[in-house]
Each structure stands twice: as structure tokens, then as C-alpha cells.
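Hi! If you just cloned this repository, the fastest way to understand the data is to look at a raw example. We've pasted two of them here, unedited. The first protein comes first, obviously.
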Amino acid sequence: MEGVELHSKMLHPSEMFWWQLHHAEFDVSEMSIASLMISTAQGKRDWVALPAFTMRRFFHTSIMVRRGSGIRRPRDLVGKRIGVPEYQQTWAVWSRGVLQDEFGLRPEQMTWFMERNDDRSHGAATGFTPPPGVDIRAVPPETDIGEMLLRGEIDATLLHLSRPNLVDRSRVDLHRAETIRSLFKDPTGEGRRYYEKIGIFPINHLVVVRRSLVEAHPWLPARLYAACVEARRLADAAGNDPFPCPAPYGNLANRNVLETLSRYVHEQGLTDRLVEPADLFASDLELGV
């Protein structure tokens, strides 16, 4: 890339975000949007975001429940014990937001069990405390969400991260467990229903660059963004992008998605104000595609 020499390192996102939020280890990286919004609302300005979105999914369709828990549909989650790797992570924020908007469920109606303890959590770097009225309990360090679900100690989990990394402890493959099933009988169909009704394809991660570098080299965000767009073009040409049409890059093209996530982060008590997309992105990158 002209003017930039990149030295890359691959990490599981859980680890990458921990290093960035705690130690600002890398100049450019993928980043959790919810954590970035939380940090920005607190006045922390370490990072400038690029509107290159590296992960999307209909996150609420990943909810898994224990057979015999009495959970047959979303509203049956009321009063249940729900596992989550981290309460503030974007995947969980989207899932709770959709559960509230689409099915009328509030976080206060459930008991939450969080797997990441302080030494491994992203929230420890952003001063996370349980929002008022929300019961969040720590998963004991000698166990994890997957094992608790199999033993009937929790009833469901918003997501289950079992790929080995240094932050998440779960390792069991719940998809192979006969006692565990998806909350939605047809997760793909539920994702399609949501998209056709709401018109949102939720975003989880984006790219950030160290603000001090941007201040020293104002041309850097545009050049990095152009590289991301070119990488996306090459992936599309190779047929590696499963959702090329409803998943554009650009902050203008995704304004509704970003504003919806900002509303969820605020409504769920994780920020004291709405974070505007303009608060996150480089000021000269008002990009629509």
C-alpha cells in the first residue's frame, strides 16, 4: 500500500479486542462496535473508525436453549437463566435489542450469567458495571457456559464461543449435544423475516486506526479504507462473501444500522448518551458505499 507498510498478526477477535481495549497493542485492527461506542461515550478518543465492516449476522438467531427448560419461543425466556460470554459485547447487545423490539422482552426479565471474569473481559477496560435493575452473575472460573447449559444450571445462551482462545473458556460443541437446540426452529427463516421487515443486516465489527497516527498522517484513513474496499472487491470476485448485496461498506449506507445499535447500547444502560456515527469515523470519510 502506497505510503504504508503493514505487518499483520492474526488473533481470535476475543483476544484482539482485549489487547486493544486494555493495552492499545496494534495501530490498525478489527474492533467491537459496542465497545468502541462505550469508550467513545466515556470521552476516550484513542481510535478512529473506518466504515469497513468485517462481521455481520442476524445475531438473535444464534440463541440456543436447553431441551426441558420450557423454552419453546422467545417470550418463554422470561424468568430464565441466560448465559453470555460478555454482557457488553456487540453480539449480545444486538440479540437483546431484537428480543425487546420484536418480542417485547426486557433484559431485566432474565437472570444473566457472564463467562468472562474481570481478568478476561473487555468490560474491565471500559469500567463495566451491571446496568440498574439487571441481575448479572459471574460464571464460576472452574466452569463455563457450555458445561452449565449441559448440566441444567442455565437455560439458554445468547451465543456460545467455543473456538480456542485466551479469553473464552467454553470448549464443548453444543451443536452436537442432543439436549441443546436453537431457539428458532428455522434460524435462516427468522433472519430472512427480520431483514424483510426491518431492513437491517446487523454489524458486529469494524476497522479502527490509532488516532495519534491519523493526526500525524491525515491521509491515512482514506488509504486504509481504500485497501479494505479493494480486499472486499477481491473477496466478492472470488465468491467468498455470502452477503454481498445487503452488506455495503460506508457509514452513510449503514447509518440506520449504526443508529439502531447506538440506541440499543444506550437503552441497555451501557452508555449515558447516544453515540452518533459521526463521533466514531474519520471526519473526511463520509462514505456511502
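Ok, and the second one:
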Amino acid sequence: MTRPGGPGPDPFAALGLRADPALTDDDVRAAWRRIAEATHPDRADGGDPIRFAAAAAAYSRLRTGFGRGEARADLTAGPRRVNRSGRTGAPGRRGARLARLAVLRARPVRAGRLTLRIAVAAAAALLGLLAAGSRPAGPAIAVGALTWLAVTGRHDIGPR
């Protein structure tokens, strides 16, 4: 159940499921209910608290499509590197941010729409700076235009 060098137990195996990309929320929920019914500690025979806890942890990880994708990625990843403290595990916050950026770069880009958004943001920032000058409103308008670009531009990077 535990993958050598991996992040921990296989949540798919804990629920008796295959790591299939076509797995739905309903499939995971049905597997969880089936195992919970058979292993719950409140059963007359005492159930199996250890297996119940493993299934509960697996369900909390797999109940969303994003969680299932993360779990599949962990299963296919190679052995984890050992950091300076001698521990293995997920990268720190900075490493996680860099990993997300790498994923963004790998997605297809809607170049036309993104170019239009960049042009609109640059024009708004320039007009704001020209209208307000060096007063605090000028840089604030420019930052607002760039923030709009960052928030809306992410929709042009990647599939719908």
C-alpha cells in the first residue's frame, strides 16, 4: 500500500480503486461508503479502525478531481529527493510555486487574446500615468492595470 520512496500510502488502493483519470466523484464516494460501512469502529463487531482511518484519509484526498490528479501525479513520480535536513517529502512553498509556474508554461497559450490583454493593460497604465502624472494616483492606476492583466490573463494560458 505504501510506495517506496513516495509520499505515503496509495489512496486509490485504500479505497479499492484504480488510478484511472476517468474516475468520478460518485465513484470515489461509493467506494468510500462501501468501505466505511464495512470497517466503521461503531459496528457491533468493532469494525477495523485502522483501515477505516486509512480509507477516510484517502477519501478526503480523492473526493475532488484536483485531489485525484495530485494523487495520480504522486504515484507516477519518481523517488523523492532527500533535503539537507535528511527528510523526504514535498517541496517547500517556494518549490511548489515554481512547480506551478512550470505547469503554466507547459500549457498551450491563446496568443491573440493574451496579446490583446497586454495591449489593453499597457494602454490603461500609460493613460493613467499621463493623466495623473507622478501623483500617487498615476502609479496606482498602472498597478491596477497590471493586476487586471495578471488576474484575467491566466485564463488565456491553458485549456478551458
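That's it. A detail worth noticing about the second one: Residues 111-156 form one domain.
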